[in-house]
Amino acid sequence: MRFPAFAVRLVAALALAAPAFAQEWPAGPVHIIVPFGPGSTPDLVARVVADKLSPRIGKPVIVENKPGAAGNIGTDAVAKAAPDGQTIGLSIAGPLGVNSLLFRHLAYDPRKDLAPVTIAATQPSVLVVAPRLGVDTTEALLALLRKNPGKYNFASMGGGTISHLAMEALAARSGTQIVHVPYSGSGPAVLALLSGDAQLACLPAAAVIPQIKAGKLKALAVATAKRSPILPDLPTLAEAGLQDVYADAWMGFVVPARTPRPIVQRIERELTAVLREPDVREKLRAQTMEVVAGTPEEFRATLASDLARWKPVIEKNHITLD
C-alpha cells in the first residue's frame, strides 16, 4: 500500500513536533503555586526546588503562596491556569484528592482538572503525647483511652486534615473515643499539647521533633507503613496492632490537566533531576523529609490509595467542611 507524499510528510512532522514542543518549554518565567502560607512544609520544598530549577531551565522560577480554604484556593488557581507548563502546583493530599470527599462543592475536580507530575517528598506523621499522661508505648496509650472514653483531647491541624483523619482512624481501629480539637496549623496544635488543652496528636515530624528532643512531648509511633529512616527507633502503629492507619505527609507537583504530554514529561524530568541532587536531598532531610521523585503513575496510585483509605473514615464520622 502506497501513502500520498503529503501524508508521509505529515506523519514525520508530528513525530518531530513532540520533542520540539518539550524543548520550547519554558517560554518565560515559571510560577510554582503553593496553596499554603510562607514557612509551611510545601513552601519550604517549593523554594528549595525553585532555587535549583531556575538555572537548569534558564528562566526565573517564582514561588507564589495562595493559602486559604484548606488549600483549595491555590490548587484551584493551578487547575484553572493556562495548560502551557508555566504554572506548576505543589500541594498535599487534601487539596489533591481527600478534599473531594470533605467538600460538597469544590471549584475544581482534582481528578479531571489536574495532572500529577511527581511526588516530591514525604515525611512521617508522629503519634505524640504529653509526658504527663505517663505512657511510653502506643499499647499503653490505647489501654488508657479505653479506660477513659471521651476524657482526652487530640489536637489536629484542622478539620479534615490528615492529622485529624489519622486520629479518627486510630480511634475506630482501637475502639476508643477521643475528643477532636481542631487548630489552624501544626504550630497551634503543638502549643495546645504543651499548654494542656490537648493530650495527644498525630502531626508531621517537622512540627514535633524539636519538642520531642526537648523532652516536652513523648513520641510513641510513626503513622507509616514501615519504620521511618528519619526516626528509625520509633515503631509503626501497625507494630502496635493498628493496621492501615497511615498518615504520610507527602507533597506533590501537579499541572493543569490539559498540559501537553511532552511538556509534562519535560517538567517531570527537570523536577526529578533537581530532587535527586545530593544537596537537595540533604536540605530536605534536615527538614525531616525524604525525597520521593517518583513517576506520574506512582503519584496516581498514591492518590487512589489515599481516597480508598480515608473515604470510610470520613463517611463513618460524617466529616464535612462545607
How would you sum up this structure, described in words?
This protein is an alpha/beta fold and 322 residues long. The protein folds into two domains: 162 residues, Bordetella uptake gene, domain 1 (D-Maltodextrin-Binding Protein, domain 2, 3-Layer(aba) Sandwich); 116 residues, Periplasmic binding protein-like II (D-Maltodextrin-Binding Protein, domain 2). The protein is built from twelve helices and eleven strands. The protein has a six-stranded mixed sheet, with helices on both faces. A five-stranded mixed sheet has the order 7-6-8-5-9. The radius of gyration is 22 Å and the shape is globular. The N and C termini lie far apart (62 Å). About 2% of the residues have low confidence.
